[in-house]
Design a protein that fits this description.
Blueprint lengths: L4 H7 L4 E6 L4 H8 L5 E5 L7 H11 L5 E5 L5 H9 L4 E4 L5 H11 L22 H9 L1 E6 L2 H5 L1 H5 L6 E4 L1 H7 L11 H17 L2 E6 L2 H10 L3 E4 L2 H20 L4
Parallel strand pairs: 1-2, 1-8, 2-3, 3-4, 4-5, 5-6, 6-7, 7-8
Length: 259
């Protein structure tokens, strides 16, 4: 049984670059998984993904050395358990605003006695039969609450103090929206950058890793230098659109008089 390569990477003191799958396609997942990302996340919240497409994406990624993550649509035990049974090695959960919500997330991701996850990891082992997976799951599954509201910032220390939280993931757009600013990814606003510094400092005190969603490779590199240890660059649909726009613009730049 393989272990969680992202968790091992963090323990070795390294940062990670994360891919993001909005497109419900195993082929898209396969392409992204061979592009050098350390982990790849299937987005079931704002991506056009459902449970079946998540499984197909995980199947397509399995022969590549990437950690398979999922952003679930909500902090709800049923979908969290199914996502883990379907092959996820880490769960990113949106809108975690209180200690109680963080405790519920951890419980949903952990087998007894550490949590309340139901046994039946259908893609990790034979249903109903104890396997190596059950022995390592509580140690290997990453629990990653999203910090993306003013309420979460007000309760930050309490959330981070919940035993079993491995990392946090910043949603820059919602975070900015929540404090009355323009929702976007790559911020230059001094107030928001100061919030990022606080998040990194509080995580570092507790041995927790901070992640953030970025719009560009340049900003992702800057965030790693700041102290984030998981940076996502846009998503598959965004990267495809950007490359296509640049390709078309490049053609007309060369032969613009024929347009």
């Amino acid at each position: 049984m393989s272990t969680n390569s992202l968790k091992a990477r963090w323990k070795a003191g390294k940062a990670a670059v994360n891919g993001w799958l909005a497109i419900p396609s195993g082929f898209s997942a396969e392409v992204i998984a061979q592009c050098g990302f350390d982990s790849v996340t299937v987005d079931m919240q704002h991506g056009v993904q459902d449970y079946q497409s998540m499984v197909q994406c995980f199947q397509a990624m399995e022969r590549h050395p990437v950690a398979r993550l999922v952003r679930v649509p909500w902090n709800e035990p049923g979908i969290i358990g199914k996502a883990l049974d379907g092959g996820a090695w880490g769960v990113i959960a949106p809108m975690i605003n209180t200690r109680e919500q963080a405790e519920s997330l951890v419980s949903s991701c952990r087998y007894p006695p550490l949590g309340t996850r139901s046994n039946g990891p259908i893609r990790h082992g034979t249903y109903g039969v104890a396997s190596d997976y059950q022995k390592i799951a509580n140690d290997e599954i990453l629990v990653i609450p999203m910090i993306e509201t003013k309420q979460a910032l007000d309760n930050l220390e309490a959330i981070l103090d919940v035993k079993g939280v491995d990392a946090i993931y910043v949603g820059p757009s919602d975070l900015a929206f929540s404090i009355g600013k323009t929702p976007k990814l790559d911020h230059e606003d001094p107030e928001i950058l100061k919030i990022y510094e606080r998040l990194i400092a509080e995580c570092s005190k507790r041995g927790i890793y901070a992640g953030i969603h970025c719009g560009t490779a340049e900003y992702a590199a800057r965030m790693i230098k700041m102290g984030f240890r998981l940076t996502t660059i846009a998503n598959d649909s965004g990267l495809m659109a950007k490359a296509a726009l640049e390709a078309v613009a490049g053609v007309w730049q060369e032969v613009g008089n024929l347009r």
